[in-house]
Amino acid sequence: MRDSKIQRAKLEQERKAIAYVHDGMYVYANPAFLKLLGFDTFEQLEGIPALDTVVDRHKDRLRDHLAQASRHQQGHEREVPKTKLTLVNSSGDHRVAITSFRKCHFDGEPAVELSLLTQQDVTLTGILLGLPWKLYISVLFLVLFTILPAGLLLGLNINNTPKVYLPSDAPSVVIDDRLREEFPNDQTILLLFEGVALYSEGFLSAFHGLANTLLEDPRIDDVVSVTTQDHISGTEDGFLVEPLIDVTTLGKSWPAERQQHALADRFASGTLVASDGSALGMLVTPVTINNSLQRMLLEDDILAMVKQARLSGYLTAMAGQIVTDVAQLRSMLRDNMVFIPGTVFIGLTLIWLLFHRWLAVLVSGIVIGVVVNCTVAFYVVFGQPFNLVSSIIPPLLSALTVAALIHLFNALHYASKRGLAGAARVTWAVREVERPAFFTAITTVAGLSSLGLSPIPPISVFGLTSAAGVALIYVIVVHMVPHLFIRFDFGDWPTKPAGLGGMDRLVKRLYRLGIRYPMQVIGGVILIIGLALPQIRNIVVETNLLEFFPKNHSVRVANEYVQEKLVGTTSLDVVFS
Description:
Beta-Lactamase; Multidrug efflux transporter AcrB transmembrane fold; five-stranded antiparallel sheet; elongated; alpha+beta
């Protein structure tokens, strides 16, 4: 029975006209054969002998070929020659076809398969019209948009710098842009060094050498330390400007004298040297870098230079706005590497547990990849930075795609339980989910698109991009995936998959609970909402980026430690005009 259903499903989508004859009567004809003879359903053809569907002069020819084919062993159909037959359709018109004969079994009974090839079938137009274009377009789309976004994503601008969260016309941005035209960048990196013999000739020489090495990097605008900072002192003739610690005259002083000299400078104490002299700071000011990936590369290169100067053992903390930004970037990349594969794995596992269908799992993996990659590629196409807000998109769309696919697969499962297979099964399933899926998609798109009104650029772009992704989910799941199942899915779906059965039982219980005790359910919901409302007061609005890290995170520990040793890590610009 199962094999017969699969056989019928495959024949239903066959473009070639095929029919089966048993004892001179048609026992099956596919849609192409029915169309050729002018019938709408097989019931119209079922009572007509096969000989009555050809002209009189070809009745003997058809009878001989049917008899010859029925005598051969199954699988030796090549021994039966093809022949030209003139068929008579329901309107009495004649159609000429080259007919092939093959012995086979249909519904467990021996039969002869007739396969017709008309003159129109061999013309270029006929060949093109006979191709399954919807399947080809669906496959081409999925393949193309699996490959193309991968190339575009190489140009993804991963940027989580503070300015991307502010509109370009925000007063703070406008003032900062004007200020940077005249004054150095305030996005800095502070290196804190501690250890024995900080004021020894060997350490200070290496320390100064590191500063010079950093200055040679074109990405670094300035380096300030006790060996590069000027010290102004009064003399009998006026004043003297000299390095706070002059590395060229280290042999003329003792370490304790150098420490005392550095602490005596009111500008250096607390900024470049700890108030107790136990630590030295080096302030690195890069040129303007508005890209988090480039900032991360700069941080890595600075650490490499510190190691090259053999000062890694002295470096105890690294802080500043750029360091915080890089830490956020690393956290974002790490979370994406965990949550994106994790979401996909959970989704695919759920689909397998629910339906036990490898084709469903394979198609789901492909569709999730296409949806996520295409949506993220919009950031490249429209030149938008990918930031912490944007990183929500991949797991979000993965989950929404899985949800949409589960609705389709559930409909296919129920269509299979109804005895449908092939195109009939998929057509029924799509008809069941198309309208609900459309309204779900359109309301979700509307909700996400409303975020486009936000004055915060990342949120606005996130809303519009996610809305486009949801629309893409609908198009692919409802209008492309079904053609793959028409072509490749013929077998029965498991009648009682454990996951789906358990979910059905849960839904039925909840449904019955709501029907039997409506007032209690409504009262329970109101009670839960009432208990939850006071918790709104516990929501804290926080803009300090360090608060987004746990207290034991390295960047937070480093910042707090630097604040204990020096005045802090954040600059404040005061403009006098």
